[in-house]
Design brief:
globular; four-stranded antiparallel β-sheet; Jelly Rolls; 39% helix
Length: 272
């Protein structure tokens, strides 16, 4: 898998984390599998699939083909992806409140949902998708110019938007009192405002951040033990971690085999 990252333009830093371009030909790559279980995560995306369409299977359903350009909200349930034989994707990884600011849609209404991007951002998304057929540097320029064109339409930033960032950097291990003070809000006000902006209560968001960061670490370092990860990410003990893991995935972490992780494309650990 070839993965290239581009820093966002300074004017985009308030709502865009990074631009990522991924490419792989699974038909000739025996080391990676095109079937991937995407674990629950706090990260939100705007994705463009330029070659084989991506298919998604939720819970016990069937694989369903997705549009070339999709928007993905907070995911609290695992989903299975089929990336096809040839995969090229341009992925905009958004800041925690970035999707709300981009769409203006209360995020608690789209938890565990994904949408065809043109339905929410307009038909110019289809033209943009066609223009992304270019070299990596040109892809980056094209997508950043589009994001810059949306700046005047963004929802206004609030102190809570910036306050959430250190919570993510601290892997979910910050007190709610500190978070509220940084947001210039009372705990109750912060709870109410967090639902439209990040889709979850601050405490639950902190839990999904910690789980997501722990799982990313396992993808990046598959030889590490779950016990080491539990201690490293601030869980009380291994049983606490197992309960949280099962809460978000529906199964125990021991089911995951090191060999399966090594063959996975590592989408959960996409952030640089």
């Amino acid at each position: 898998m070839v993965t290239v990252y581009f820093k966002p333009h300074p004017a985009l830093l308030d709502y865009v984390e990074v631009i990522c371009i991924m490419q792989d030909a699974f038909e000739t790559d025996d080391l990676l599998s095109p079937i991937y279980t995407y674990m629950p995560t706090h990260t939100r995306f705007l994705c463009f699939y330029l070659e084989d369409p991506v298919k998604v299977k939720k819970e016990d359903g069937e694989f369903e083909e997705r549009a070339r350009a999709i928007i993905i909200g907070t995911q609290l349930l695992p989903v299975t992806l089929d990336l096809g034989k040839k995969h090229t994707a341009v992925i905009v990884i958004l800041k925690p409140c970035g999707l709300y600011r981009l769409l203006g849609i209360p995020q608690h209404e789209i938890v565990d949902c994904d949408f065809e991007a043109s339905l929410l951002l307009g038909n110019d998304i289809n033209e943009l998708t066609e223009r992304l057929w270019s070299k990596h540097e040109e892809k980056n320029t094209t997508i950043q110019n589009y994001l810059l064109s949306r700046l005047t339409k963004l929802k206004a930033a609030l102190p809570i938007d910036k306050a959430i960032l250190p919570l993510v950097r601290a892997q979910g291990n910050l007190s709610m009192d500190f978070l509220a003070s940084q947001s210039c809000l009372s705990l109750r006000q912060m709870e109410r405002l967090s639902l439209p902006r990040i889709g979850l209560s601050p405490k639950f968001y902190a839990r999904i951040v910690r789980f997501s960061e722990a799982y990313k670490y396992k993808e990046r370092y598959p030889h590490s033990s779950w016990t080491e990860i539990a201690h490293g990410f601030g869980y009380y003990d291994q049983m606490h971690f197992i309960r949280e893991f099962k809460c978000f995935t529906g199964f125990n972490p021991g089911i995951l085999k090191e060999g399966d992780i090594l063959k996975s494309v590592g989408f959960n650990s996409l952030d640089p």
